[in-house]
Amino acid sequence: MSILLTEADGLTTVQDLGRPGLAHLGVPRAGALDAPAAALANRIVGNPPTAAVIETTMVGMRFTSLTPHWFAVTGARCEVIVDGRREAHGEPFFAGAGAQVVMGRALEGVRSCLAVAGGFDVEPVLGSRSTDTLSWTGPPRLSAGDEVPCGTPSGAPRGVETPLPSPSGPLRLWPGPRADWFATGAFEELCAAEWVVGADSNRIGLRLSGPAPVRTVTGELASEGMVAGAVQVPPSGELVVFLADHPATGGYPVLAVLDPRDLHRCAQVRPGEQVRFSPAREA
Amino acid sequence: MRALRFGPDAVLVEVADTATALDIALWSRERITALDIVPAAGTVLFDGVADIDAVLATLEEWRPGGSDVEGDLVEVPTTYDGPDLADVARTWGIEVDDLVERHSSTEHVVAFCGFSPGFPYLTNTLGLPPVPRRSSPRARVEPGSVGLAGEWTGIYPTASPGGWQLIGRTTVRLFDPAARQPALLPPGTRVRFTRA
Predict the structure, then answer these.
(1) pLDDT tens-digit profile of A122-137?
(2) Closest CA relative to residue B182, chosen from A238, A124, A178, A145
(3) Residue A24 forms contact with B (CB below 8 Å)
(4) Which three-class secondary structure state does DSSP give residue A204?
(5) Structural contact between residues B75 and B195, judged by C-beta atoms closer than 8 angstroms
(6) pTM here?
(7) Is B174 left (phi over 0), alpha (psi -120 to 50) or beta?
(8) Is residue B36 within a helix (H) or strand (E), and if so which, with residue range?
(9) Which residues contact A162 (CB under 8 A, 6 or more apart)?
């Protein structure tokens, strides 16, 4: 039971919930960047939330389903075509043995998730099937010619689940642990400005250019632990919002921290798009 | 001990020094529920905690030396022939042999890991000033390279770019994802470099 990739030109990786608990050894957590999309794809095909999905980047991929399977595609909207027949995004579809499946280029957003009933069954590394692109712990990235094994389904496809509309509006921010290394009002200015997503954004971090926050403490920061969503300000002034593959420790001061509820939205913003922030409030 | 909020699910605790950070991190592992507890140079990060106030209340029970952990002692056979060995000795105004003697007769402790999986930051108690990083990092440092930077000795588990001053090399495997304990030298491990 497997699929055979025939085209995978963007970054294509297997991802699950990641491998928490190893940051003290320097191992990134990894995991699907758009976690709610991965969870939805798994629910649609009847998988537990721990099942592994394939995450594509921008250009999608093509594969042959070597054996019959139920699939679902979520996350970045894209065309889904099975043997020339169009299937709905966000709904279960069936592909028989030998069927050619196209996940097209992302029409909006960046990363689409493909779930298969039974999950993708690559060999776990340190308890997770996620590829981390910082240290390349985990299964290697996928490319054309790779055969990806599929597990045995444990549940039935659920039919249609209406996905929540994608949230819009500013990303919510908390003041960071080193906010006092910056000029008074730097956090508020961060929230008032417009930021443009950089082309070098990746699974490690979202890079944002805009009005550089002014640092008042200029000394070196000794390396300290970092969380996903940490907004680091390197000397260039370009912000780096740490995502799933971020390093366990970092040496640039963290001015702000993205609310975990908005972290997944960073998976879907494109280079050149604008991003705004607003101060988060206790729920 | 100063607590700094790091978003709604994490707290960074600032402490006096590296040894304290390690002590608190080891002490906390059996007492505090967190997805990750990450010691670093002068801080401990508690990430993925449900109740930050409860974490801070527990930390008030910590006393210096509380972890009472005597880490495993691991010997790291090292060939002292690194390309920066002579430069570092010159910076310190000592002979190369003296540097090697001091480095291999000192017991080091892994204060924390970072940079790449299994990369140990070993406390450097040679009684010599901090070592500056190379002004231009190397594009590729071979796995097993032993280097100095700041107050630390480090060992590269995998090939990567790097700016540490390389004084030697070892053939021990520092990170093995298939092993039950993937890092040979996790925080708290005592390390003795022996001349290979």
Answers:
(1) 999 999 999 999 999 9
(2) A124
(3) yes
(4) coil
(5) no
(6) 0.94
(7) alpha
(8) strand B36-39
(9) none
Instruction: Look up residue A188 and give its two tokens.
Output: 């508020």
| Contact with chain A for residue B119, Cβ under 8 A | yes
Q: Read off φ and ψ for residue A189, nearest 5 degrees.
A: -65, -35
A59-98 residue pLDDT tens: 999 999 999 999 999 999 999 999 999 999 999 999 999 9
The answer to whether A279 contacts chain B (CB < 8 Å) is no
* Separation of alpha carbons A6 and A103, rounded Å: 11
A135–B7 C-beta distance less than 8 A: no
Domain count of chain B?
Answer: 2
User: Would you give the DSSP letter of residue A164?
Assistant: P
Verify whether the Cβ–Cβ distance A223 to B183 is below 8 Å: no
Residues 7-36, chain B: which have Cβ within 8 Å of A?
7-10, 12, 25, 35-36
Q: What's B41's domain CATH number?
A: 3.30.1360.40
Q: The domain that contains A188 carries what CATH number?
A: 2.40.100.10
The answer to whether residue B66 is domain-embedded is no
Q: How far apart are CA A82 and CA A131, in angstroms?
A: 27
Distance (Å, rounded) from C-alpha A124 to C-alpha A51?
11
The residue in chain A having the minimum alpha-carbon distance to the alpha carbon of residue B2 is: A177
**Cβ contact B114:B196 at 8 Å:** no
Token pair for residue A264?
């997944």
Backbone phi and psi for residue B182, each to the nearest 5 degrees, phi listed first: -65, -30
Strand B152-155 with A147-149, pairing: unpaired
> Do A105 and A22 share a domain, yes or no?
yes
> ipTM score here?
0.94
Please, are residues B8 and B55 in contact by the beta-carbon 8 Å criterion? no
- Whether residue B45 and residue A29 make contact (CB cut-off 8 A), yes or no, is no
Residue A280 φ/ψ, nearest 5 degrees: -80, 155
Domains held by chain A: number: 2
- Spatial distance between the Cα atoms of B144 and B77, rounded to a whole number of angstroms: 11
- Contacting residues for A228 by C-beta, under 8 A, at least 6 apart: A29, A242, A243, A244, A246, A260, A263
Joined tokens for residue B60: 């008030």
Q: How far apart (Å, rounded) are the C-alpha atoms in residues B7 and A177?
A: 8
In a shared domain, residues B113 and B186: yes
Report the Cα B2 to chain-centroid distance in Å: 22
Q: In this predicted model, what pLDDT tens digit does every residue of B15-66 receive, in sequence order?
A: 999 999 999 999 999 999 999 999 999 999 999 999 999 999 999 999 998 8
Q: Looking at the domain assignment, is residue B185 inside a domain?
A: yes
Kindly state whether residues A137 and A179 are assigned to the same domain: no
Q: Which residue has the tokens 């799933």?
A: A244
